[in-house]
TrEMBL record:
Signal peptide: none annotated. Pfam families: ABC_tran. Transmembrane segments: none annotated. Residues 2-233 form the ABC transporter domain. Keywords: ATP-binding, Nucleotide-binding, Transport. It comes from the Bacteria. GO terms for molecular function: ATP binding. PROSITE patterns: ABC_TRANSPORTER_2 (PS50893). This is ABC-2 type transport system ATP-binding protein.
């Protein structure tokens, strides 16, 4: 479960990037995080993952405060950033072993997982190459694999499906469903409204740093008295005119 209580964040000289957001993301659900460009999705995710300080309010991951107990909190979530351009000088295998070492994944389990996951994502043959030489999608896949080898309860993914080929995207969506079905939490931002509608149990929509909707598709339809698609409702809700 992720609890976000009264969270605010500003950057110098700008309107509030996040303005008093409250939401509880339950266990066992996939939650899609939607909002137009610049709405504050990445800013929110960076606070949830302890990368960016919170100006006001608090964020709890399975009851652990991300700022007050950062190391403990970091053991229970996995994060895939929107820009997967990290550790470029490491080879794929070096990166995965590095993650395995940090999270104390036993060597045998690690070996089996790395082989299985990277074969599923079709990057197994590139594990000996530097991440620098990987395409955007391959970089995403190696980071997703890094998350999966230490099996965190909470997944926080910033636009994870952007840039993935159809087969890998299908595979990742399947993994997200399996993870949530085991009672875990999956929270991901996306601009893909069809994917969100098809995959997510609930959606959170933000606009200019404010949460304008949180709930399931049925609640969205009831609230706006419509049987339109998520795309139609999203466009209406986020329209400024
Ligand atoms: N490091 C920063 N310094 C200053 N302003 C920032 C910084 N990071 C984000 N912002 C501002 O905060 C607001 C929210 O940006 P954010 O990147 O969170 O949006 P987003 O919803 O993730 O957008 P996108 O869909 O385009 O990725 C924007 O106005 C952005 O300019």
């Amino acid at each position: 479960m992720i609890e976000i209580n009264g969270v605010k964040k500003s950057f110098p000289g700008k309107r509030k990037a996040i303005n008093d957001i409250n939401m509880t993301i339950p266990d066992g659900k996939i939650v899609g995080f939607l909002g137009p460009n610049g709405a504050g999705k990445s800013t929110m995710i960076k606070m949830m993952t302890g990368i960016s300080p919170i100006d006001k309010g608090e964020i709890m991951l399975n009851g652990i405060n991300i700022e007050k107990n950062a190391i403990k909190a970091k053991n229970i979530f996995g994060y895939v950033p929107d820009q997967p351009d990290m550790f470029l000088r490491l080879k794929g295998m070096e990166y995965l072993n590095f993650i395995g070492d940090i999270f104390n994944v036993p060597k045998e389990i690690r070996k089996e997982k790395i082989e299985r996951l990277t074969k599923q994502f079709e990057i197994y043959d590139a594990l000996g190459d530097h991440i620098q030489t990987y395409s955007h999608g391959m970089r995403q896949k190696i980071i997703v694999t890094g998350v999966l080898i230490h099996e965190p309860a909470i997944w926080i993914l910033d636009e994870p499906l952007t840039g993935l080929d159809p087969k890998s995207s299908y595979k990742l969506k399947e993994m997200m469903r399996e993870h949530a079905n085991k009672g875990n939490t999956v929270f991901f931002s996306s601009h893909g409204l069809e994917v969100v509608e098809q995959l997510c149990d609930e959606v959170a929509i933000i606009k200019k740093g404010e949460l304008i909707f949180y709930g399931g598709m049925q609640k969205l339809r009831d609230q706006y008295q419509t049987d339109q698609t998520l795309e139609d409702v999203f466009l209406e809700l986020t329209n400024d005119e």
